[in-house]
Amino acid sequence: MAVVADRQKGDLNWTIGEQVTSGAGALQDLQSPPTYAQPDKMSGYVLTTSDSGGVHSNSGIPNKAAYLMAEGGVFNNVAVAGMGLAKMRDLLFHALVHLPRNATFQVARDFEVTTARAWAASGDHGFTYTDVCTVRNAWFAVGVGFGDNECDGVEDTLDTDGDGIVNSRDNCPLVPNPDQADADGDGRGDVCDNLPAGLQPPPGGSRWRRAGRRLRPGPRRRWLLQHPGRRPRQPQRSGPASGRSHRKDRLLLRSVLQPAQRRRLRPSPRGPGSRWPVELRRPR
Predict the structure, then answer these.
(1) pLDDT tens per residue across span 101-145
(2) Cα–Cα distance for residue pair 211/203, rounded to 1 Å
(3) Over the range 146-157, which residues count as b (16 or more CB within 10 Å of their CB) and which as e?
(4) Contact 82/134 with Cβ under 8 angstroms?
(5) CB contact burial 66-84 (16+ within 10 A = b; e otherwise)
(6) pLDDT tens digits for 151-195?
(7) β-strands 28-29, 73-75: how paired?
């Protein structure tokens, strides 16, 4: 709210405390929280017991969401359409006076989205359903909740690989990688960097395309992609259905049967004795 008051008075930056009498300079920057050692997305959330659990240390996350609501922009590969300072001010002040003291970022996000939807339905504060999309995407950009890329009112919740990260945010949507590791910073997860040449997963897709064919990665291929250079152990066949047992039984029978009876032995590859004469079939 301090930044909102500053901007309404003509101070058009997004910093807080730059004019304090101590001369220490600004304390926070809503546009760029990391400038003052504050995270701007949930991946940088600081776990601490000091500062009342990091209430100020982590305030850069909702601050960045507020900035995106007002100004818009592309952040963390999410495009946000700004809705203006006045709408952001009204929404966040409403949340400020109604949220409980122990509200989490997720609770705050859900409350603001619900409020924006109610205001869009009633026309209060000039809100429209496009503004609801802005609130969703602003929070989604900083890693809280789901976004709405098409602004159709339906949140994007598809998670093809089941790693808990929706396709629209996942840097490798077909191979599970909950840590989202990206050592070379190319925007594609490390597990996708190890894919065979020419085999690239389309963003948000459920199949791979290669040489004009569609390949659906099965459990074995996914295991191999997650463990490059290794091979899964093959199950060991044992018991009556094993090939060794089959061969031994066949040789034993051939040694005691007459030639005419030997020709009647036609063992099936499915298992020993499945096509043997009734009187020669092994008991099960």
Answers:
(1) 889 999 999 999 999 999 999 999 999 999 999 999 999 999 999
(2) 18
(3) bbbbeeeeeebe
(4) yes
(5) bbbbbbbeebbebebebbe
(6) 999 898 888 888 878 887 788 888 888 888 888 888 788 888 876
(7) unpaired
Q: Which residue do the tokens 């295991």 mark? A: 223
Q: What does DSSP say about strands 208-210 and 78-80: parallel, antiparallel, or unpaired?
A: unpaired
- Give the C-alpha separation, 217 to 199, whole Å: 11
* Secondary structure of the chain in HEC code, one letter for each residue: CHHHHHHHCCCCCCEECCCCCCCCCCCEECCCHHHHCCCCCHHHCCCCCCHHHHCCCCCHHHHHHHHHHHHCEEECCEEECCCCHHHHHHHHHHHHHHCCCCCCHHHHHHHHHHHHHHHHHHCHHHCCHHHHHHHHHHHHHCCCCCCCCCCCCCCCCCCCCCCCCCCCCCCCCCCCCCCCCCCCCCCCCHHHHCCCCCCECCCCCCCEEECCEEECCCHHHHHHHHCCCCCCCCCCCCCCCCHHHHHHHHHHHHHHCCHHHHCCCCCECCECCCCCCHHHCCCC
In the structure encoding, which two tokens stand for residue 204, read together? 């948000």
